[in-house]
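dumping this here so i dont lose it
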């Protein structure tokens, strides 16, 4: 089965909406209450009012808002279908990065079709929320983020050529990430991209809930409407990046337990699997240990007063413990899986952990340790990040990692383009 990408008539802010820096936001699932208030204060047209509104009847509020903004020419739909080459320039740990990909309409494929693969477990509540939003507004407000392999550099060379020209859109977000977009409407150029991507497979890096909600919505619409192959609801706006891109950065997803403490019996049992070292309880010492042991299976544990380094001593013991999981050995030996299956489940005897109530996820070592020091959590388990190539390889073996295993950085900023999937819309 071939990958089908198509141009779409993007809905975008007009100059009447004001400066883009006051309109764009982080993705909806990265917006906390403080950020929500800040976004609302920035502009009456800020994109947060669409992806994460404060109103109780939020789906109807967004539907009404989009209608009004289109009527007032705050938002406008392009006359010509296009795809967009999209670039993020950012600095991380003192190093400059550039990541370049493509925003286009990607046909929705069920996972069983072997074209698009998930890499993480998903939750039912966010999927229900996004599905209700789709039903009400019939718009893709944010792209799904996917990776594909391009060793031949067919798309990379295309991006290099396009980005020699000045960008169509340029904005810097609150994280000092510069987002640039080049609009590509030439049918011949789009056909070159379509040909380059048609035999690829895609792995979702971010937006699993959006993608799975879109699949459910597509199936609903197929039962309700006369189904044609080019109906827009068969597609989802997607941001696609080559896995070989040097700017494809994954941050660690540290785990913070809110109710469970690290007792001496637990530590004693950990010694059966890990070499335990006492560290200075500082961010610098923890990060140094993780970097030094990046090629090992290693964690740091912080309790507020004490920091420990844990380095796995025997892979075979771990494989025996996790033998009944059904996962491949390559997956069972990932740090995030060892932490879940060996430390949390086998040693600490923890059951299902509920987000926010039992467990928190944090990308920053410093913030994670601060949350433990302040009492917001009792203990932090700090990890190294996973290589994108590993994610790519494992996903295509139909293996899923624990939820929140990866944090691709930076996220595509929200508010630059949206895609119409209303009745009668065709691609």
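and the seq i came up w/
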């Amino acid at each position: 089965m071939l990958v089908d990408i198509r141009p779409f008539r993007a809905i975008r802010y007009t100059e009447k909406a004001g400066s883009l820096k006051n309109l764009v936001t982080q993705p909806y699932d990265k917006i906390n209450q403080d950020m929500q208030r800040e976004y609302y204060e920035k502009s009456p047209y800020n994109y947060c009012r669409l992806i994460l509104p404060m109103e109780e009847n939020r789906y109807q509020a967004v539907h009404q808002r989009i209608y009004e903004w289109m009527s007032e020419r705050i938002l406008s739909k392009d006359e010509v279908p296009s795809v967009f080459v999209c670039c993020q320039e950012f600095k991380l740990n003192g190093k400059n990065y550039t990541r370049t990909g493509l925003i286009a309409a990607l046909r929705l494929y069920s996972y069983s079709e072997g074209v698009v693969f998930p890499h993480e477990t998903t939750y039912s509540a966010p999927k229900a929320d996004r599905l209700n939003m789709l039903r009400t507004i019939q718009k893709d407000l944010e792209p799904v983020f996917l990776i594909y392999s391009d060793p031949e550099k067919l798309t990379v060379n295309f991006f290099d050529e396009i980005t020699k020209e000045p960008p169509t859109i340029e904005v810097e977000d609150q994280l000092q990430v510069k987002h640039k977009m080049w609009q590509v409407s030439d049918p011949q150029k789009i056909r070159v991209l379509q040909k380059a991507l048609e035999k690829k497979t895609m792995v979702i890096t971010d937006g699993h809930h959006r993608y799975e909600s879109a699949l459910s919505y597509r199936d609903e619409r197929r039962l309700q409407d006369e189904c044609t192959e080019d109906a827009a609801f068969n597609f989802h706006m997607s941001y696609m990046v080559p896995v070989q891109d040097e700017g494809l950065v994954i941050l660690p997803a540290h785990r913070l337990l809110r109710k469970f403490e690290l007792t001496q019996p637990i530590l004693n049992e950990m010694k059966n699997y890990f070499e335990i070292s006492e560290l200075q309880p500082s961010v610098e010492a923890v990060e140094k240990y993780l970097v030094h042991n990046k090629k090992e299976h290693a964690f740091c544990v912080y309790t507020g007063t004490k920091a420990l380094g844990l380095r796995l001593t025997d892979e075979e013991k771990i494989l025996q413990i996790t033998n009944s999981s059904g996962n491949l050995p390559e997956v069972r030996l990932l740090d995030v899986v060892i932490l879940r299956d060996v430390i949390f489940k086998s040693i600490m005897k923890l059951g299902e952990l509920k987000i926010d109530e039992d467990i928190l996820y944090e990308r920053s070592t410093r913030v994670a340790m601060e949350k433990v020091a302040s009492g917001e959590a009792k203990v932090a388990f700090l990890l190294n990040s996973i290589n994108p190539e590993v994610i790519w390889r494992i996903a295509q073996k139909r293996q899923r990692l624990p939820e929140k295993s990866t944090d691709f950085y930076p996220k595509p900023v929200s508010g630059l383009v949206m895609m119409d999937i209303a009745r009668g819309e065709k691609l």
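The mean pLDDT is 92.
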